[in-house]
Amino acid sequence: MNLELSQILVFIGLTVLIAAATVWACVRAGRDRDDEKEYFLAGGGLKWYFVAGSITLTNLSTDQLVGMNGNQMALLAWWELAAVVGLMMLCFLFIPVYYKYNCTTTTELLEKRYNNKHIRALISVLFLAGNVFIFLPAILYGGSLFMQQMFGLEHINIWYFAIGFAVIGSAYAIFGGLRAVAVSDTFSGVLLLSLALFVLWVGLKAINFDFSGIPVERLSLIGDYDSPIPFATLFTGMLFIQMFYWSTNQTITQRAMASPTVKEAQKGILTAAAIRLLIIPPIIVIPGIIAFKLYGDIGDRAYGEITSNLLPPYLTGAFAAAIAAAVLTTFNSILNASAALWVCDIHESYIKKNPNVKRLSFWVSIVMVLLAFIMFPVFQNSESLINKVQEYYGYLSMPILSAFIVGLLFKNVNANAVIAGVIFGVALYAFFLNVWPTLPGGNYIHMMAVTLLASVSVSLLLNRLAFGQKAQWDAGTVFGKADIAEPSH
To answer: How far is Cα 211 from Cα 219, in angstroms, rounded to an integer?
Structure first.
């Protein structure tokens, strides 16, 4: 497809409009006097609709639209359907606890439960490693690949697109903080979801709503042993993956922690869950299936082919703007959350107590972006973007979640025992994935469940045998209906 003037004008116009609307909303909201609170928690003033919009678009990016559609099968919808369970956990279990303990970062909760800053720092380092070496390069690659295909610019090196996304996305995160990120997420989300539904409609019309001729396994929600999501994994690692991602991951929870009250945050989370249940599953799998019928098995190129071939030029420009916004908002969300982890959990504890938050975040963000490009070629050569992201993040997600589970359910647990359990979990998952991949069950999602249980068990066992402490059940204290000060920040 040849690049047309209408595409360029619509793309630039919508991109500038979203940026202008974001600046207007941020200026209108004013600034809080506390730099850290303003920069990382939007002054504690995010309304429920910004929470919902930001949670939705922070998660919805090219790794979903490109990666999940790239599998070209309905089975991948389980990632989004199961996410609703994760959001319910965040809404009713975790968010009240974060507000109760007055946390700026999710890892701050660990320090307060274990009374140890080192476990907070360790978990932050693991989060940062996942953000920098897995999520950021995956987002850059997926967005760049889509732009290449959308505008028919395969002759231009994909690295140029990635650098452009990195520069613009960094500017949002560095100069605007969480408020700018959340506001741009919401504006972009309305545009993206509307156009994604339109792409779905156009695709269905292109095949006359007829899915005949498509192999049954691509339409089934029951995955077999060799599929990306075997059915049994929905009851093992899948639940824990969702708990980790939606309830402990700073990039997601930071939005809900930035509301003035728990109830305001919960309204936003429930709205995000409704969007996740009703809108997201169809737009992240059906276009890929349609592409299989139209073009065959083309992998991660599926979504780009559908949009570039079936939409008129002016709408491809609009959709490209929406995708670019999704890439940028996810990218800058991760950057802002990563800066919060570094500043609050590491720099203030070990280097300098009261740094210039904005200046420090600027340099931290620059370094993280540069490091992200190290892993860019790995995703460039992967068979499936989304599967590679989930598989790699297993190194960190279950060991991290084990620290939260032990800390929230028990008291009288030595932090060093939990640190050892976390390290053991990382090593165990690496063993499963690289040395003995057929155990257990041959799927990394099962392996993640085993890794979590092993990490928790090792932590409690070492606590008793090595440190002479008997863990005591304390879930009632943490999750009980204690009075929560509002606003909490």
So the answer is: 9
